[in-house]
Design brief:
Blueprint (H helix, E strand, L loop, with lengths): L13 E6 L4 H14 L26 E7 L5 H10 L7 H4 L1 H8 L2 E3 L10 H18 L4 E6 L14 H11 L4 E3 L12 H6 L3 E4 L6 H14 L3 E11 L1 H7 L2 H19 L7 E5 L6 E11 L5 E11 H21 L4 E2 L18 H16 L2 H9 L1
Parallel strand pairs: 1-2, 1-4, 2-3, 4-5, 5-6, 6-11, 7-8
Antiparallel strand pairs: 7-9, 9-10
Length: 386
């Protein structure tokens, strides 16, 4: 859904429709956008705010309008207060941006299917798509990007569309670009292959790369480039919050781990021994600890090890990437790009399309994409108008 106003035009307003809009990642993204726009904090962690992206025609943070679907009913201001109490958001920030949080909360619609919901999939998709279209119409939005940041669901089986795919289908029906920041099925369901191909929309995903896998995408190529043989690579994740609870389900954890292991296979050229375990530790809240133990052979077969520990706040790591992806995908839509945005693999564990797994190669592709957006006819016309 779009009109002819360029994203560089001061009148342009771009919608960001968040699936899981009252979760920690969504709340942090909304709060962070408001804080950066107001000059309260610097855009730390936002790659799109670095020099290679200047002049690429990305929508301004101040132009973003937030809404979304969720099955929870905790208002965003209350959610933000809880995140501030846990150290995820700065003390006092929820009060400083209370109006922005309340405005976004008013645009959140009931998700589904809920327990006991008797609506058929087509009815749910139509309802979700109508919510998105009405949101765009009320705010006179130039275009709207749908971003899935909901909790991980189990791997889909059978022909039924899981919730993430219902929302993805609704995005297509509403004419909106789609980003899957989770390992859930989304557009990957076979029933959505033809609709996604024929919709003429850009899409990206899946499973945002924020911690352990980010490090693996750097270390894997290092071992390969130095001709060091990796024998085993084991890992453990300790996390709480909603994601920890969701990933306590072995089926959901399997979906998450698949992307982590794929990065190692792709960057090393072989699959080392070892597994990755995910443990739910509710006391950690929105914080997580990821530990890796790597065994490798050096010259003359000398056995060595590398151990890493990553401790961080998942919501704070993910939120700036969500804002990056919304801006890049909106600009790609304006530029007339369609299909999988493989150049956005930098952000994902399991990117759609053919893309390198090394972070360095992915960053080169991403900055090349920024240059490509800068030299599109739309960008040239906007620059000439200024």
């Amino acid at each position: 859904m779009s009109n002819s106003v360029s994203l560089t035009d001061s009148r342009a307003r771009v919608g960001v429709w968040l699936i899981g809009a009252r979760g920690s990642v969504a709340t942090t993204a909304v709060a962070g956008c408001a804080a950066v726009t107001a000059g309260l904090h610097a855009p730390v962690g936002m790659v799109t705010e670095t020099p290679p992206f200047a002049g690429s025609g990305l929508p301004a943070l101040s132009s973003l309008v937030f809404g979304g679907h969720d099955t929870l009913d905790c208002p965003l201001p209350k959610r933000a207060e809880a995140l501030a109490a846990g150290g995820v958001l700065p003390h006092g920030l929820p009060e400083a941006i209370g109006a922005e949080l309340a405005a976004a909360d008013r645009e959140i619609r009931p998700g589904g299917p809920l327990r006991g919901d008797t609506r058929e999939p087509e009815e749910l998709i139509d309802t979700f798509a109508a919510d998105i279209r009405y949101f765009a119409q009320r705010h006179d939005l130039t275009r709207t990007v749908v971003v899935n940041v909901a909790s991980t669901e189990p791997v889909a089986s059978g022909s039924d569309l899981p919730p993430s795919s219902l929302y993805a289908a609704a995005a297509l029906r509403a004419g909106c670009p789609y980003v899957n920041f989770t390992p859930s099925t989304g557009l990957h369901h076979p029933a959505l292959a033809e609709p996604a191909s024929s919709a003429g929309l850009p899409y990206a995903g899946r499973d945002g790369k924020t911690g352990q896998t980010l490090l693996r995408s750097v270390l894997g190529p290092m071992f390969a480039q130095r001709a060091l043989t990796v024998r085993a690579w084991s890992g453990t994740n300790l996390l709480g919050g909603g994601d920890g609870a969701a990933l306590a389900d072995p089926a959901a954890a399997a979906a998450k781990n698949a992307g982590k292991e794929r990065v190692l296979t792709d960057t090393l050229g072989t699959t080392p021994e070892g597994e990755t375990h995910i443990d739910d530790v509710p006391a950690l809240g929105d914080w997580k600890t990821a530990w890796d133990h790597v065994t490798f052979d050096g010259f003359l077969g000398t056995r060595m090890t590398l151990q890493t520990t990553w401790q961080g706040c998942d919501s704070s790591l993910a939120a700036p990437l969500v804002l990056d992806l919304a801006r890049l995908t909106a600009r790609a839509h304006e530029a007339g790009l369609t299909g999988p945005l493989t150049e956005l693999a930098f952000y994902f564990k399991d990117p759609v399309g053919e893309a390198p797994s090394s972070l360095g190669a992915q960053y080169e592709a991403l900055t090349g994409f920024a240059q490509r957006l800068r030299t599109t006819p739309e960008a040239d016309r906007a620059e000439a108008a200024r």
